[in-house]
Amino acid sequence: MAALNAPRLLPLVLAVALVSGACRSARPAAGTAPAGPAAPGAPAQRYESLRALLWFQSAEECRWIQRSAFAAARRSLEAALADASWSALGQGPDAAALPPAVIADLDETLLDNSAFEGGLLRSGATFSAEAWRSWVEAERATALPGALEFVRFAAEHGVTVFYVSNRDAPFEAATRANLAREGFPLRDDLDTVMLRGERPEWKTDKESRRREISASHRVLLLLGDDLNDFLPGVDATPVAERRAAAEAHGERWGVSWFVLPNPLYGSWEKALGAGQPAPADAAEALARRLGHVRAFP
Ligand SMILES: [Mg+2]
Fold first, then answer.
1. 204 Cα–ligand 1 center, Å
2. What is the rounded average pLDDT for all residues in the chain?
3. DSSP letter at 140?
4. In whole angstroms, what is the distance from residue 5 CA to residue 86 CA?
5. Does the pTM of the predicted model rise above 0.90?
């Protein structure tokens, strides 16, 4: 019930908006180390993500949310293939003749990087571009439950899957190798791995990449773990604005837009601090986060 009433409460929540102590937006922004000041190992920060991480890694509930999302996406894909007017991006009749495609994010959508998070937590380190590079180049990310089956189903039905990720361009070879190792289909005749910075206009906001794909393909579905995987201009916007932007496309969620759970990081976290200066220290960062909690009484 509280969740249903949440929009009305958001202005109050924003009154205490904050910058999160570890404000990564979509993973993996090289050079965007956490804005939070906590010394590595500071207890309040070090274990702040422990329960979320354990849920992501071990909860059967999480695994079946993921599998359910991909199963629903598969059903929608079947419907979309039978409906020439179907587009996840509102493309018009001209798109009917274009080859079909799906746009999927990689990290925490198709690939599980939670062991990287676990390594940070175990060692007491905070996110750094160097640590992330080591992880990506180790090519150890694994397919999330249901992801491989879904992507293979799409490929077998003539649907091109574009992997639109904010991994940085220099990681393309390692990312391709990791995808291939996990069994994700890659095309030889078309670059379907579209990373941030491969072209100057391919920035953190993925809209330019979605536009490019939609010029040559009819986009049937979007899959992601971050609002940025679906909408433009939502990377560092306040909670209420994100809510309004998502609500404006209410008919698409669960139909042509499928979101995967990610309690570990994301632009949702950045939104909590939108427009606010960085906190002075770890204690202030924690206090600000607590300020966002809805509570009774
Ligand atoms: Mg992601």
1. 12
2. 87
3. -
4. 32
5. no
Q: In this structure, what DSSP letter does residue 177 have? A: H
Q: What is the dihedral sign for C-alpha 236, 240, 241, 246?
A: positive
pLDDT, tens digit (0-9, with 9 covering 90-100), for 259-281: 999 999 999 998 998 888 888 98
Residues 4-52 pLDDT 10s: 343 333 333 333 333 333 333 344 443 333 333 344 555 667 788 999 9
Ligand 1 center from residue 13 Cα (angstroms): 26
Ligand 1 centroid vs 164 CA: distance in angstroms?
Answer: 9
pLDDT score for 22: 31
Which domains occur in the chain, in start order?
A: 2-291 (3.40.50.1000)
pLDDT at 44: 62
H helix intervals, the chain: 2-14, 43-46, 50-58, 60-81, 114-123, 129-138, 147-156, 172-182, 207-216, 239-247, 267-271, 282-291
Distance 10 CA to ligand 1 centre (A): 25
Taking the centre of ligand 1 as the mean of its atom positions, its distance from the CA of residue 80, in whole angstroms, is 24
**Span between the terminal Cα atoms of the chain, in Å:** 16
